[in-house]
Amino acid sequence: MKHRIILLVCASIIFNFQLSTFNIVAQPLPQGYFRNPLDFDIGLSATFGEIRMNHFHSGLDMRTGGAIGKPVYAAADGYVAKVSISPWGGGKILYIKHPNGFTTVYMHLDGYAGKIGRMVEAEQYHSKSYSISRLFTPDELPVKKGQLVAYSGNTGGSGGPHLHFEVRRGGAEDLHTGARLFNPLLFGLPYTDNIKPIIRGLRIYPLTSAPVAVGKDNTVSVDGPFYMGIYATDAAEGSTAKNGAHRVEVYLDGNLFFLFTPESLVTDSSRMVNALVDFPLFLRTRQAYLLTRALPGADGEWVPVRQGDGIFRLTNGDHKIQVRVYDIKDNLAEQTLTVHCIGEKKCPLPKTDMRYTDPYIYNGNCLRIEMHPYTLYADDNMRIVEGNIVTVEPTINPLPPHKNYNLSLKGRGNYGVDPGKVTVVRLDGTHRYASKTRHRDGWYTSQVRDFGQFTLAVDTTLPTIRAVNFSEGKLLKGNIIKLKIGDDLSGVETYNCYLNGSWILAEYDGKTATLSINASGKLKKGANELQAEVTDGCGNQCRKRYTISK
Question: Are residues 63 and 173 located together in one domain of the fold?
Answer without folding.
Answer: yes
